Amino acid sequence: MPVRVLLLLPAFGGIALGVGTMALAARRPVYSTAFTTPYGEFALLAAGWALMLAAFALAQRRPAGRSAGLLFLAGCGWFLAEWDTPGAAAGWSFSLGLALYAAWPAIVAHAALSFPTGHLRSWARRALAATGYAVTVGLQGVGTAVFLEPTARGCTNCPPNWWALADDPDRSTAMELLGVRAGAAWTTLVLCSLAWDLVRVSAARRRAIAPVTLCAGACLAAVGASYVYSLDRGFLGSDSRDGRLWLLQALALALLSLAVLAGLLQARRTHQRLTRLVIELGGATSPSRLREAIGRRLGDPALDIAYAVDGGRHVDERARPLLLPLPEGTAATPLRYGDMEIATLIHRPGLLDRPGAVDDLVSAVYLGLEHARLHAELLDQLTDLRASGARVVAAGDEERRRLERDLHDGAQQRLVGLVLGLRGLRTRASGQEARLQSAEDEVRAAINGLRRLARGIYPVLLKDAGLAVALDALTEERSLRLMQVPLGRFPGVTESTAYGFVDRLTERQPATVDVEAERDRLVVTVRTDGSARPDLTDLADRVTTLAGTLTTPGADDTRWTLTLRLPPPDGDAAHATDSDRHTVHSDFPDTRATKRI
């Protein structure tokens, strides 16, 4: 049998219970709070049926938890409070009314303390709920009823009390007074516990449970006021003030039901949005489209998603680091699947306050989030790998510069000293001038070769003066024409790669060189006048390590293009052009881009 059909049985039972209670109380209206209070008949049915309606709606949600059953029992208890009417009921119904007439506040307190799952999460809550049942059912109900026999006290129209063991007015009065006092103390503790719940939980949780908690607290506050008002007389009565407090209790119960229904309506609307999100995403989707779709469906276009990577860091879908903690006006909600955190949603406060909203979101877009997380993790690893490769390249450049310095300061200086020594010896020796001159020429040739070798290892001008000056110096010994070159400085590995690219292509053929610095890229274009195609395999590997591109010419083309990614600048690039075909460009610091929420 379908679940919804099974739920119709208690629904019809609740309707019948309300109608039967009205019929029973109408037989002796003088003893009924509902019939002795203005608009009491309407309040009786509205509060009880509203609780049952909220329970019926909550029971259709999966998983429903125990809250639906507690709300239904609270509605039943609200009606049973009228069943202790003397002379209007049969023995079994009268006895049931005597035992349970005060039980519904304990059920409402149980539902409020355990909302929304119906499970009491701590021993203190369980003790508080158990105390409520002990006071309302144990003391005020059965504890009083066992010493009460109405027929023995002259009530000829009263049905028999099935709980009565003896008729003892003193003990019955004492139990009623104890129940009233214990009820006043218990309701105070429950109100303090509910208030503490609203204080200690997070803001998101507070917004989720506040409507139900406040309505239940208002109802229990009215119950507590009734207990306090009854302390002097020692029993719960039904005078005009009791009637007004009873009306407040009925109103609070109706508002409690509306709060539950409003939460279910909001949950349904969120579920519909998430369902549309799944349909919209359908199939493979890019991480950026996933973020935009989730933000659009949840009504927060500025929503962002952070993915946890190795080291406890968080990055976005492009592997850009996200700086936490968050600024004022934003909230972060971890999205978990089992024990694993797949993402953290960064959004405006209050977006996912409803209980179960996070679980609904994860179940709807889990595959998309997992794909985006793996994509971000891969990009982050690739970024780290490229950074490591760039450090290796920079270390190699530094080692070559050290070798160049050692050759310049060591072997070259010794050879220069040898030339000076040969020159001095030639001025003093006679008959050996030709042989000494030949030796001096050989040493000078060795010096020139050593200088070319040192410059090939690492040009000293590149480190000291920059790319523009180093390329200018290269034009003095090559058939090389420079169109424009930025005068500003760039990261060392960028300058050495660009210089090596030009040096390799212009070694054996004339060429025209054009260097442009965009905001995030350095583009070097070399047009050669010959057909030589040098081997650039090692240079291509270096460029790939630096996340750049190297484009070789086609069959009818002579244009070689090198594109290198630059770190972001500190400020706007300043551009100016002088008469010597050089373009002034601002420096680019060697830093990594960071995205701040």
Q: Strand order, biggest sheet?
A: 5-7-8-10-9
Our count of domains comes out at: 3
> How is the main sheet built?
5 strands, mixed
Q: Summarize model confidence as the mean pLDDT.
A: 77
- From the 3D structure, determine the CATH topology of the largest domain: Rhopdopsin 7-helix transmembrane proteins
Topology:
Blueprint: H1 3-27, H2 40-59, H3 67-80, H4 91-100, H5 104-114, H6 123-145, H7 169-200, H8 203-229, H9 240-281, H10 287-298, E1 304-308, E2 314-315, E3 331-337, E4 340-347, H11 357-428, H12 433-457, H13 460-465, H14 467-475, E5 480-482, E6 485-486, H15 492-505, E7 511-517, E8 521-528, H16 537-545, E9 549-551, E10 559-565, E11 576-577, E12 582-584
Parallel strand pairs: 5-7, 6-12
Antiparallel strand pairs: 1-2, 1-4, 3-4, 7-8, 8-10, 9-10, 11-12
Helix pairs in contact: 1-2, 1-3, 2-3, 2-9, 3-5, 4-6, 5-6, 5-8, 6-7, 7-8, 8-9, 9-10, 9-11, 11-12, 14-15
